[in-house]
Amino acid sequence: MSLKSLFVASGIVAGIAILAATLIGRAPSTVSADASPSGRRSFFSRFIGPRAELVVVPAGTRLPVRLQQGISSERNGSGDTFTAVLDRPLTVDGKTLAPAGTPVEGILTNVTDAGRVEGRASLTLILRRMNLNGRSYTLSTKPLTLVARSTKKKDATIIGGS
Question: Could you list the pLDDT tens digit for every one of the 162 residues in the chain?
Fold first, then answer.
């Protein structure tokens, strides 16, 4: 390999390295600094679009939702889906990510019907998806288990005939 070829190859490698470093170091944003008001786009902006911004909601953040239909351990079973809406806006660090009324989908993961003398009805549910501005976002939430009040005294009275 000649000295001239070595310099050309080194220049190409250096150019690729600079381009890669520029693209990797680009700040995550949906607003592009290279978009001009005239509508013309730079050469590189044609190859790379705006990067999606990953937002992580801190663990322990409560998502108050309002169910859109009734759920019951008598009518529903594990694997049934349900729909709800956010009862309040979802806000992280003062930034509203989703307004109140945003549709949310969930699934029942464990449904137990109440037994006759012992056992209480329970439902375990998780939220799976949020739909906002025509886009669907995957949710990863901790399960919420709801347990009915005990009816032992009432059941004993019915069975005993009093």
Answer: 565 555 555 556 555 655 555 555 544 444 434 444 445 566 666 566 666 667 778 888 888 999 999 888 888 889 999 999 999 999 888 888 899 999 999 999 988 887 655 678 888 999 999 999 998 988 888 898 888 877 655 554 444 554
DSSP code per residue over the chain: --HHHHHHHHHHHHHHHHHHHHHHTPPP-SS-TT--TTS---TGGGT--PPPPP--PPTT----EEESS---TTT--TT-EEEEEESS-EEETTEEEE-TT-EEEEEEEEEEPPPSSS---EEEEEEEEEEETTEEEE-----EEEEPPP-HHHHHHHHHT-
